[in-house]
Write a structure and sequence with these properties.
Layout (H helix, E strand, L loop, with lengths): L1 H4 L2 H19 L1 E4 L7 E7 L7 H12 L2 E7 L5 H8 L4 E4 L5 H15 L7 E5 L2 E2 L8 H7 L4 E7 L9 E2 L3 E4 L1 H4 L2 H8 L7 H17 L5 E5 L1 H9 L3 H14 L4 H8 L8 H10 L12 H7 L5 E2 L4 H11 L9 H10 L4
């Protein structure tokens, strides 16, 4: 993997410069029907099979909360879908899938800055998640009220890899102080852009938080791993046993260790204490967006769910749809989740 990545360190900057020089030819801008507001949301989508209804639902939520949506599509959009998007967006940008999500974030943000579009708060979000799951979602209100320069939903910090701590990249909210600061424009202009997915994660998502912290900008977030542990510990014995069985399937590295507790009596002396110990050791559900629905939605009330089609996420959706928690999800998002894993 490192050998494949190595050439990018020589060609990334020249390719970025070439991309910037050709943007007037490769980027297509279409004015939408939504008015510009004090706050703006960059919404990155990649939907080559057609526009998803859940995306329109997200755009309407953003606009209702005072964010004018700038939709960035990393795949071509049909004329029919473009007309539908225009009704829900302030601006639609179509671009080649160069740099994946961070390449799209960069082009949209630089456009806003170069055009001197007035912005107070700037939200950056992508369509790797369904958001918001419920119509009464308050995440955007929380992000504004936090009074932080950079705000995310989940702060990924695990004890053994503290040096890689970062806000997860499916949701960022940049505050007024940072948006108007020269550090903000400089970061996006000089961003290490590649078309290597692993490097996009390592040089984009995993470094963005630290890059702004190093310059003195404040960060905030809704949850971290401590919240995940607390939520797990608040489950009943029966619920913990259900999570153990689930965790064995989504985290095979620890499945053998967990197996002895899946089949044991959860009310037996010592069973719960042992499971709580495994939680403290981060052997039970340390990955936030793959957490069991009882924890992610039932306890933490997360407003988003991952769309990933890997088996572990399919299992998570099956667990959700078999629970009463699904009744709390809005009809549009529930329909999207129910149909996601059906054969095409």
């Amino acid at each position: 993997m490192q050998a494949i990545q190595f050439p990018w360190f020589f060609v990334a900057a020249p390719l970025r410069s070439a991309h910037d020089a050709r943007k007037h030819k490769t980027l297509t801008l279409t004015q939408g029907m939504r008015a510009l507001q004090k706050d703006v949301a960059v919404v990155l989508i990649f939907q080559p099979r057609g526009l998803q209804e859940s995306t329109l639902h997200m755009l309407d939520h953003l606009y209702a909360k005072g964010f004018a949506p700038l939709v960035v599509s990393n795949a071509p959009i049909t004329s029919q879908d473009l007309n539908r998007l225009k009704d829900h967006a302030y601006l639609v940008m179509q671009r080649p899938n160069y740099g994946y999500d961070f390449g799209g974030y960069r082009d949209a943000i630089l456009h806003l800055l170069e055009q001197k579009i007035p912005m107070r708060f700037l939200v950056v979000i992508n369509d790797s998640i369904w958001f918001p799951l419920s119509n009464d979602c308050t995440l955007l209100d929380h992000a504004r009220a936090a009074d932080k320069d950079l705000f995310g939903y989940y702060y990924n910090k695990q004890s053994e890899v503290d040096q890689r701590a970062h806000l997860q990249s499916y949701f960022y909210c940049f505050g007024p102080r940072l948006v108007s600061h020269t550090d903000f424009a400089e970061y996006w202009r000089k961003l290490f852009v590649t078309s290597n997915k692993n490097l996009v994660i390592r040089r984009g998502e995993m470094r963005l938080t630290a890059a702004f912290q190093a310059k003195g900008h404040s960060i905030g977030y809704c949850h971290d791993i401590a919240d995940l542990k607390t939520a797990l510990k608040s489950l009943s014995n029966a619920e913990l046993k259900q999570v153990v069985a689930y965790q064995m399937q989504v985290d095979t590295k620890n499945s053998a260790r967990l197996g002895r507790y899946r089949d044991a009596d959860p009310d037996a002396p010592g069973w719960r204490d042992t499971i709580l110990g495994l939680i403290d050791q981060e052997k039970m559900g340390k990955y936030f967006l793959i957490a069991h629905p009882l924890v992610l939605l039932g306890k933490l009330h997360a407003p988003m769910l991952k769309k990933d089609r890997q088996p572990m996420y399919q299992l998570q959706r099956a667990e959700l749809l078999a629970s009463d928690i699904v009744d709390e999800i809005s009809p549009t998002m529930r329909a999207a989740i129910e149909g996601w894993d059906q054969p095409e």
